[in-house]
Fold each of these.
Amino acid sequence: DMVAPLPPHVSKSLNLSVKAALAEHEDAALDAIVKELRAMLDAPTIEAVDPETLSWEQLKKRIPSKMFIKLKYLANGDFDKIKARLVAGGHRQDRTSYTEEQTSSPTAASPTLFIVAGLAAREGRKVRCCDIGTAYLKAMMIILIHMLIDPTLSALLCIMKPEWEKWLDDKGRLTVVLRRALYGCIESGKLWYDTLSAFLVSIGFIANQRDICTYNKWDDEEDVQITISIFVDDFMITCVSDTVLDRFMSQLREKFGDLTERTGDIHSHLGMVFDFSVAGEVSITMPGYIDSMLEKYGVTKVQKYPTNNDLFARDENSPPLAEAERKEFHSRVYTVAYMAQRIKPECLPILSELCSCVRTATTEDWYKLEHLLQYVNGCRDIGMRIRIPKGQLFVNASIDSSHGCHPNMRGHGAGLISISKDGHGGTIHCESTKLSLNTKSTAETELVTMSDYASQALYIGGFLTEQGYPNVQVILEQDNESTIALVRKGRSTAKATRHIAIRYFWLHDRLVRGDFELLHVAGTEIRADLLTKDLRGAAFSNCRLKINNWE
């Protein structure tokens, strides 16, 4: 009775207006709207004011608002609920009244989330995921903001609060003051993070300084660590002790009230399915996201490889897309990229190319995107499987490049990071991008690429150390012996330009300090080869297996 069934490709990411939602879903939509408005009043988040008591400047600065109704689905594609959300028109706020720190809110990075999940699997930790309802409403506003409510919602509010009816303007709108943070306001995310962070610190948690959305606490009673990865109001919490988890969930409920908790071995979290049912490993897939995407775009064919010809070739005579098609192309490229960045790294080289031309896309680019979608359709069930071996932790970064492969003769670089000595066991971070500068040789191209991706490997190593794991060793895999010799020598080439020399000396300095170990790997064996070249046949299959750890 909650919602009339709709085809997944129509509804999974559909935002509806209030009028459209009421027309299509009637009572179910009305219940969601009323629930959201009731939450606004109970907090209280909004409070009506007499517009005649406001100055002309205050009336002019009033920001708009809008209610969105969304049909929410779990990552496996199952319907979850209808959700209504009142959103402020933060685009109308005066940004000169805020510092950058007041409007910038952190979220957990995908690599650190994957590490938290992988370590939970390795150590046999219990995993719980939860989200806090109306999270922003738990934070108090600091700067005074007035907001307009549209006539439909104002009428509903006046039924709940009859005393507000006298303050309706001649268009049937209420003017309210925001007492608590509201979605859409430019400062709300940071206010919520500060509120949550203060609570966690007050009960003994400490933020990982490499990712301040990962918190840890050592429980003295059970002698175990509890870890939380935070993405706004969605948490992944891991601990070997159910007692410690239960205690923390009780504290969370007592502080923030409305909370949805999920237990078990399989979790829907941030559009991904984390499956811990096999001991020692976690499988990460996005079935609901992929199914919805392919059905929405009408993809029925399948392809064996992500590309249909030379990876970086471009036909300069290909006609440009019409503006409507170009916008659709732009949207589709980034929809695919969101998924590929997490579970299908082999798609990143062509996506890097397509992302670079979203404003000047041609018919050729559209065909390349169609081919890529057909490849995803052919391997939609393949995800990312992470298995972190027991014992000492290693950060293995496989780094590779192709020299002068783009039409402007710039190279292409890629990096893959796994938490294992040999690089097997799945990928927790991957990148594949065109270099930002031209280089004069293959060795220079490899040097620039290594300096770019070594930073991420060292960051991951630091994150693991902050998590409490001793003697974390970083390994950089490289297939170019000239580049390895150059970094180890201790002196630069006489003709090296300044930007190349800076990268060289930085790498050499970190190597001498023992921050990482350089390891030569044959070009046919290096995992990142798939992210810089257009491989085919067994070379493609073997490389994908090494990267995804998915047979």
Amino acid sequence: PPKPKAETAASAVVQVSPDEKKYAETATQAKVAAGAVAGALGLGMVGVSGDVASMLGLTSLAGVAGYQTVWGVTHALHSPLMAVTNAVSGLTAVGGLELMGGGIMPNNTATGLAAVATAVSAVNIVGGFRVTERMLNMFHREGIDPPNCDKLYALPVGVGVVGGLLAQDPAMAYTAAGIACIGAIAGLASQKTARFGNALGVTGVATGIAATVGTAHASMATIAQMTGTLGVGGLVGYLVAKRMQPVELPQTVAAFHSLVGGAAVLTAFSAVMAAEDINTMLAVSSWAGAAIGGITVTGSLVAFGKLHGIMGSAALKLAGKNQINMGLSGLTLASGALMCINPDLGVPCLLVTSAASGALGWHMAASIGGADMPVVITLLNSYSGLAICAEGFMLDNALMSVVGSLIASSGGILSYIMCVAMNRSLANVILGGAWAAAAGPAMVFEGEAVETNADATAAALSMAKKVIIVPGYGLAAAKAQYPLAILVKKLTDEGVEVRFGIHPVAGRMPGQLNVLLAEAGVPYHQVLEMEEINPDFKNTCVALVIGANDTINSAALEDPNSAIAGMPVLEVWHSKQVIVMKRSLGSGYADVPNPVFFKENTNMLLGDAKRMCETLNTKVNALYE
């Protein structure tokens, strides 16, 4: 077939010199630092002091600690990271426990809401840690990695629980719990320390909850209610995590996010109902908890629906959607202002806040396409942290503010990483936009895609010395990881060097494909990130692309007027031969034609990924007999 050619000339890509790039980076750092210092000083000038200032200080320090630790987490462990932060966010249970009462059963609406908040938080705690454990077990390489000795981690957990129950004051127990939760994220920096990180998370949450119960000074009947509520919620979380299939991980995480938001909303209502006097701090923080929690609940439920297939993945496009968002945001803010002016209207204002913010979360999430769910999930993770942080200020609980800030920074950084990987702004994704409009007419590529078959592909793989496999969401959707893992093992056993290249936004959740491949038995040392694998394509015999499109689209680098211009991609076209396995020749989510399909060294292997991988297994085995 003829080489692709551009009918419309495109302007040259503007090159930025290293000096200019360094100046821009330094200027940004200087502005951020100056803004942070000015913000802190400004709060002092307007009268923020005492306990509020101390809480803000702890929250800020936790945010900085979270910022530093999250950047150290390897991409392959982003899914376990989100599961751990999901579990840690279950410390909303601390707020529920503080407000519980009435004996063996709640005695009024406030204590009833607190009990429900505690139960749903427990679902998150046990479910999140169990999901993390399952994922880390998938990464364990039998015969290569040493045996696990996780039972020993019961020691710090036991010390935390006993110490928390015996504490006279929760302050130091909360400090230990907060440090352990920060350590949990730091532990996920590598495969070697990930299990310890998960154990630290369990230790932190268990210590915090034990200290809350131990210092509650409640009757034995109320303590029995607390224990029973935690137990029921924990059992539900365990069962959900046990039944979850690896391909269902994104929607499971989204569902857990909704529970955090729901717990924050319920706790806000409970705190306002139980208060004898609603001061400004309680009014503002309870409103913030209800507002952020409301967005988190409905946004997470929409994400769950889209990922689980019970809602269409296409973006909702209502007329005047920006005006709808602005109107709902205005109503949410107005209800908060009214609550501060007239605290006696606390409960009605919270009802309006929850309804308006819930509608806002639903509309914004529904207006985002299914392929942008990785960003939505990480953003909701950040929102859940903000809701917990608000709850901490509401109840004057330092642990909740610290953990909330930690989770908010974690989700925010992951959202940023996803957006950079798509060369899009966070606002563009949140507001339901697509890739930015091109500055000029895009290049038009001519040529004819050349199809191949399983026999030729099997022969090419068998004769290759080096193979790089690039999976996309199509692999997960077809559940092709299992026959693919068998194919990779056969080729590896026959002396072929096989590795994987993973794009940061491949799949429907950060790190999802890493988990799926690990679950199928692919050793994690064969799975590399985009930055690591890209230089090696030029020395690769065959690049096998399975269910990926936009993440390998060369127009991102070749056409400055393309809608995805500047997006980092896996440069498979530098391989000696490229074989693209997908259902059809259609464009990806960005709806941008892919010139890789028309290149001279590319062949298209069309069909269902799972069935095609099974066929390749048969063909490859036959060639080696």
